[in-house]
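A favour, since you know our structure tokens better than I do. Would you make up a two-line entry for one protein for me to read? Write everything out right here, beneath this request.
=====
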Amino acid sequence: MPIDGWDHVEFWVGNAKQSAYFYEHAFGFAPVAYAGPETGVRDRASYVLGQGDIRFVFSTALREEHEIARHAVRHGDGVKDILVADLGHFLPTDDKVDVLYTNGDVMDSFILKPYHSVQWLENRGKFPFVHHPLTRMYGVHRAVAADFRGTGRKDIVAVSFLPARKFRRRRAMKLDSVIYLQQTRPGKFVRYSLEQGTCDHVTCAAGDLYGDGNIHLVTGNFCMERGETLKDSITIWEKVSP
């Protein structure tokens, strides 16, 4: 089955309206569509938000016996469906396109959740993709794969977002805020901690910033409370490696 682009990512959440409001006002997404009782859908409410080519769908149950409600009770908020397209080769284990994703949202309950993690869906040429949980990480918000070491093998960097005023012990607990997953052999990773305690990173990206052939990491930092300030909104990590 050819993969030609991202369509959307659907989140099953406890409060879709609140999640949509947060992504609209904190990250600049725009409301695109809605489905719920007003449109004839009686068992759920779904909000579609867009930004450029990105489409997020936040769905919540309107009945306690609904599968979304059961999912939220058991797992908390998280990604349920990912519709993918041609993303380029993620891991160099073969010539197929894989999916890397995280589930680490804490914006509804502000509690540490042990199932927050980085996960990999391996494309072996047919659906369903093979699921590989890679590592657990509180509040993990974003992960990227890149050839940081110039070996031809992609490693993974992941970042976390745990708001300082809600998680006051994040430094004392030495919670990882940036981790590095080194691919030691195809599909096998060893974890390293690059930073602890400063869990202000809502996103990250990797690329050759200076045209020198080296891949660097960029983290986007965010605070959500009035009166809070950050030293830097964007941080460049040069020559990232364990």
Observations:
- The first helix runs from residue 16 to 27.
